[in-house]
Amino acid sequence: MKFFKILIMVLAISVALYQQVSEEKNIYITVIAIAVFMFGMMQLSAKVPSKNQEKEEQDAD
């Protein structure tokens, strides 16, 4: 599942970059591609623990 999300994010950012260098720029496609990329980053970073998580757990005890 993680590989699939990364693949979708790479495709989305590729589409966004392609739109920026093309002659006819379509702002809607660029915005959608960036939104997909940001949503994917949010999903992937949600599983990474914060630096202070261990400290917060010790303070709670």
What does this structure look like?
It contains three helices and no strands. It has helices at 2-21, 27-45, 53-60. The longest helix has 20 residues, at 2-21. It starts with a helix and ends with a helix.
Give a short overview.
The protein has 61 residues and is mainly α. The chain contains 3 helices and no strands.
**What is the CA-CA span between the terminal residues?**
35 Å
Strand count: 0
Helix tally equals 3
Mean pLDDT: 85
Q: Please write the string of helix (H) and strand (E) elements.
A: HHH
Strand content: under 5%
Characterize the overall form.
Answer: elongated
Structural class: mainly alpha
The largest sheet, given as strand count, sense and whether it forms a barrel, is:
none
Point out poorly predicted stretches.
none
Rg over C-alpha atoms, rounded to the nearest angstrom: 17 Å
Approximate helicity band: over 70%
